[in-house]
Write the structure tokens for this entry.
Amino acid sequence: MKCEISPLSDHTGAEVRGIDLSRPLDGEMRARLNRAFVDHSVLVIRGQTLTAAQLLAGVQLFGTVFHQHNTRFALPECPEIHYLSNQDKYDDGKRYIPGAGYHTDHSNAAMPPKATILLALKLPDTGGDTQYVNMHRAYEDLPAETRQRIANLVGIHVYQSKHSERKLTGLPPEAKGKVPEFVRHPIVRTHPETGRKSLYLNPIRIESIEGMGEAEALSLLDALLAHATQEKYQYRHKWQPGDMVMWDNRCLLHKANGDYDHSQVRYMYRVMLQGDTPV
Ligand code: SIN
């Protein structure tokens, strides 16, 4: 296989062509892809035609599978793979667009997933892009006094923050007790593979900042989020059929766009890889 890896922006994303994840890859290729993932934070691997079982086997070249806690989205034939669909509804009948609003995945876990992987199976004719922002760049551009102010702050993350604008679907009964009530993560996180610092925010899950009053914490979090989500830190992914996109939750925020005709199906497979304790 002749594999080509080309950057998609000057800070985030690389396109990978010429590999087939349903076939075994040699050690050199595996190392190259893992390096590219750490260097570019988003890998867009084009042209993948994979069953759920092949996806599950293929992604393990990048790490160990993370057990997703909301089992209501698990595929019956391959429960480690979940689906993501714009055809799902909340209990009140309203359409659920999974992933709308900037966030990082499962930061309410003590060891949140290092990566999330989506495989596009059905796409709307236009729209439904996924937007990413680079939290290394956003951190590095902060004024020195802000970096000093936030250096040792700890965020309290819960399944569903009372401050979140997006409502999540409830957890199924079997997940209760498996999901911690809250976890503590630094607001400034150091990437375990590069040593580079980034902001670690999650408006859906951060409930408070340890030792800080609510009004001050919310105003600080809002200001950091507004800074981090500026267009200059963004890579916007326009999906093509067969794209397998994998991103680094340790240094990015992402969001799905619901800006398309919802009578058209947007359906993807989703799997995540285990990360470590944020420090
Ligand atoms: C997600 O937030 O995991 C989903 C992103 C997307 O559907 O584009």
Notes: The first helix runs from residue 27 to 40. Residues 84, 98-99, 105, 116, 130, 254, 256 surround succinic acid (CB under 6 Å). The chain has one domain: 4-273. The CA atoms of residues 21 and 58 lie 5 Å apart.
